[in-house]
Amino acid sequence: MASKVIHALYTDDDVLMDAVKATRKKHYHIEEVFTPFPVHGLDKAMGLPHTRLAITSFMYGCVGITVAITMMNYIMIQDWPQDIGGKPSFSFIENLPSFVPIMFELTVFFAAHLMVITFYMRSRLWPFKEAENPDVRTTDDHFLMEIDASHHQEEELIDFLTNTGAVEIKIIDKH
């Protein structure tokens, strides 16, 4: 089933923000907005829910500190205890101050690397994936708002988008 979308191009991010707000106010469904740089407040104007990536980052940090504690306890206390600088390694608690930097580094390491993997998976950015950018100008200086036009009158929607400041409007058949 083919559906129609309308691509409205804008040249200014402030005009785009006003257009997004007006489009949402008219209850038109915005599929996606493509911008050459992050536009502050655009996610809120589009009505997107808050991200839960911070929660996953915290969980990945907890995994990192758990791996660090388990690894150091096994290596330095159980498997190969050493007398370093007159400080014997007989318990984890006695040597905790010297383990703090390693725990911190592994916490950050796990959180950072697993967050990158999570972000790519969530964004569906696989290696060798072709770009889904509908107009090459959105990587330079234009902003594109993609609106679902399958349930609305096209002429009415085009007139509305022209009044919001769109410099170019295209009707696209998606398959």
Write structural notes for this entry:
There is one protein chain. The protein is an alpha+beta fold and 175 residues long. The chain has 5 helices and 6 strands. The chain has helices spanning 13-25, 42-46, 53-79, 96-122, 154-163; strands at 3-10, 30-34, 83-84, 87-88, 143-148, 168-174. The strands form 2 sheets. It has a 4-stranded antiparallel sheet with strand order 2-5-1-6, with helices on one face. A two-stranded antiparallel sheet has the order 3-4.
> How are the strands of the largest sheet arranged?
2-5-1-6
Radius of gyration: 26 Å
Structural class: alpha+beta
* Straight-line N-to-C gap: 7 Å
Give the overall pLDDT as a whole number.
89
Globally, the shape reads rod-shaped
How many beta strands in the DSSP annotation? 6
Task: Give helix % range.
Answer: 40-55%
Strand content: 15-25%
